[in-house]
Design brief:
The protein is mainly beta and 652 residues long. Helices cover 6% and strands 41% of the residues. It starts with 9 loop residues before the first helix and ends with a strand. The relative contact order is 0.10. Residues 1-28 form the signal peptide.
Length: 652
């Protein structure tokens, strides 16, 4: 993702910054998600014949993995082609199985750039939709298309089936197919409309004639923006819980985790009861009240449930059964889900490290500043940000002595030196907070505690690390000194967001938009989490030596970081705004855990004024918070003298 190549056109520029790739089995395809700031320059497509939505009758419900309250986005290959799109009504579906499909709902961005549109329903994924149990070619002139307000791609089309489709126990696939003859416009490059939501298995299936179908689950794209109108009988109070992977708990502790559930009842979900079964033994019922009732029929929501740790460390399968919904028995046929609980001897704090490639010369990098700020605020005890200002060599905060992490554009970050993604939108193109939340689930195998102290007349930072391992092996530590509150009015950060109005931007980006606090093409924000020193040399080699650890044997490591000598940084550096980040790496260079601590001032580096102070020359003077001043200022001043001493002087 090299953002140096962004065009100046707003819509194209924003689209270019959100890249997501995946491949069909038979023919590699690179897909791009359409922009977060939708349609900044592009006028909506004219709608000649709008089609009204079908309001369901008393015995009918619209159902799909997509729900109409979702934000709608668009994806495409930027190439011409035939695009087959589908979702799966799975066996056991509480809404559709045994009922009838009366209509199909889908969204179109621009009917003028497509042809040969068909809808279809089939028991299996068809290679040729004309072989499906039901298919219908549609007259494009009767359909609605065009983008709605910002963030909502496409216009809705509800199509009644010529004959109702009976959904059997095997379920059904529902889809649409069209051809884009020429990808000459933005809507032709991104013609497929999706619902922006966490991925669901078989909720976004893509294919093409002669190619194998692909389930795009796990790509962070969302679900196909399509639904079916189901007619029949429905439950009133029903929840279907979805299987989960692994939750973690410390011995003797209770863990709270998020469980995804589907509302299959017309009354929605206000509260529910559940049991947890381990080794065939069910627990007592637990009760959960939702802070806000969930009313979306067929919609998936997240609820918090608790699991008690097992008596011994290890992993056991757990079955969670939803027994009651809104105080009455759960009517869902599938009322249970399964997953694992891993009980560990010790539950250490995990700290996620974000190393961000950025620079003052990168006009899209303000979103990285905001993304880092959001992460610090959301996870103050579990996040360590490291901003590497190496995008442009004339950046006053640039520092060459650091690991070579293989960034290929800015803004870009790595989380725990594994997940490479956008520092604002994250890997799911929604928010970096989702990635951090996911990485925090599994507890670390080693506890990390860090202390940092200024020493040697504030020229060095002595770092002490206490490690508590639950495993054995060879490890290494990387040490980084980061600075907050760096500000110089002469430092100019490129800012392409100044071309957008606040109404076009998320709330947290408004300061960088037109009229905002930093709403100029070149602005002077306050920089935080800036890497100013590290244990790496200019060749990118870590100077801290590796070491061995044995399970349950505590280890202490020490390292001394040099304070920055770069003049532009020293002039604005505040001694009370320094943090040290220590990254624990295994023998393969993977991040095991990390620690972060504020650097404390060296009590031996600040002395009281003595009677001989007048015998040497004053060379610098600072306030107690590390800000340089040109003359004595009332209160405590820190004075640096030509003999190398730093002394504390009280000015009255």
């Amino acid at each position: 993702m090299n953002n140096k190549s962004f065009t100046t056109r707003k819509f194209a520029a924003i689209a270019a910054m959100l890249l997501s790739s995946f491949a069909f089995s038979a023919q590699a395809q690179t897909w791009e998600i359409s922009p977060k700031f939708e349609g900044a320059d592009d006028a909506p497509v004219a709608i000649k014949a709008p089609v009204a939505k079908i309001d369901p009758a008393a015995n009918q419900k619209w159902w799909g993995y997509f729900t109409t309250d979702m934000k709608r986005i668009a994806v495409g290959t930027q190439k011409a082609g035939t695009f087959n799109q589908a979702f799966h009504i799975k066996p056991g579906n509480e809404v559709a199985i045994g009922n009838k499909i009366k209509a199909i709902r889908f969204y179109l961005r621009d009917k003028s750039v497509i042809k040969d549109l068909k809808i279809w329903i089939s028991k299996t994924l068809p290679g040729d939709v004309t072989k499906a149990e039901y298919y219908k070619a549609l007259d494009l002139s009767t359909l609605a298309s065009g983008d709605e307000t910002n963030g909502y791609a496409g216009k809705v089309n509800d199509i009644l089936l010529d004959n109702a489709y009976n959904v059997g126990t095997e379920g059904a696939y529902v889809g649409l197919i069209f051809t884009v003859p020429s990808a000459s416009s933005e809507t032709a490059k991104y013609p497929i409309v999706l619902g922006s939501t966490p991925d669901v298995k078989e909720a976004l299936l893509l294919g093409a004639p002669g190619q194998q179908w692909e389930d795009l689950y796990g790509q962070g794209l969302g679900v196909l923006a399509a639904q079916v109108l189901v007619e029949g009988t429905f439950h009133q109070n029903a929840i279907v819980p979805l299987d989960f992977s692994t939750a973690y708990a410390g011995l003797g502790k209770t863990t709270t985790f998020e469980l995804n559930v589907t509302n299959c009842g017309t009354e929605g979900i206000s509260n529910f009861d559940y049991t947890v079964t381990t080794d065939g033994v069910a627990s007592a019922e637990k009760h959960v009240n939702l802070a806000t009732p969930f009313k979306v029929f067929g919609g998936v929501t997240t609820v918090e449930v608790t699991l008690d740790a097992d008596a011994q460390s290890g992993t056991k399968e757990k079955t969670i059964t939803i027994t009651k919904v809104n105080g009455v028995p759960n009517q869902a046929n599938s009322s249970s889900c399964k997953g694992n609980l891993t009980t560990v001897d010790k539950l250490f704090k995990r700290v996620i490290v974000m190393e961000e490639f950025t620079g003052t010369g990168c006009p899209w990098c303000p979103r990285g500043i905001v993304g880092m700020k959001n992460a610090n605020e959301a996870y103050p005890d579990n996040f360590a940000g490291i901003a590497l200002h190496n995008y442009n060599s004339d950046d006053p905060m640039s520092m060459s002595a650091y690991a070579r992490l293989g960034f290929d554009g800015a803004p870009q970050c790595q989380l725990n030196r594994d997940v490479k993604c956008d520092p604002y939108y994250g890997s799911d193109k929604k928010t970096i907070l989702n990635d951090i939340k996911r990485l925090l689930i599994a507890p670390p195998a080693v506890g990390v505690e860090v202390k940092g102290e200024l020493t040697n007349n504030n020229t060095e930072v002595k770092v002490k690390v206490n490690l508590d391992p639950l495993t054995s092996g060879k490890y290494s530590l990387a040490y980084v000194l980061v600075a907050d509150s760096l500000y110089n009015s002469k430092w100019k950060q490129g800012n392409n967001y100044a071309q957008f109005s606040p109404a076009q931007a998320p709330e947290d980006m408004k300061d960088f938009c037109k009229g905002g606090k930093y709403g100029k093409s070149y602005c002077s924000p306050v920089f935080d989490d800036v890497a100013v020193s590290s244990s790496y040399n200019t060749a990118g080699i870590n100077q801290a030596t590796s070491f061995n650890m044995q399970k349950d044997v505590a280890v202490t490591q020490e390292y001394t970081l040099k304070m920055p000598t770069k003049k532009s940084v020293k002039e604005v550096l505040k001694l009370n705004k320094l943090n040290v980040v220590v990254i624990l790496l295994d023998s393969k260079g993977k991040v095991v855990n990390a620690g972060k601590a504020a650097v404390t001032l060296d009590p031996t580096g600040i002395e009281e004024v003595n009677n001989n102070a007048a015998e040497v020359k004053e060379v610098a003077r600072y306030t107690v918070d590390g800000r340089r001043i040109n003359a004595p200022q009332r209160g405590v001043n820190i004075v640096k003298y030509s003999d190398g001493r730093s002394v504390k002087e009280i000015v009255r």
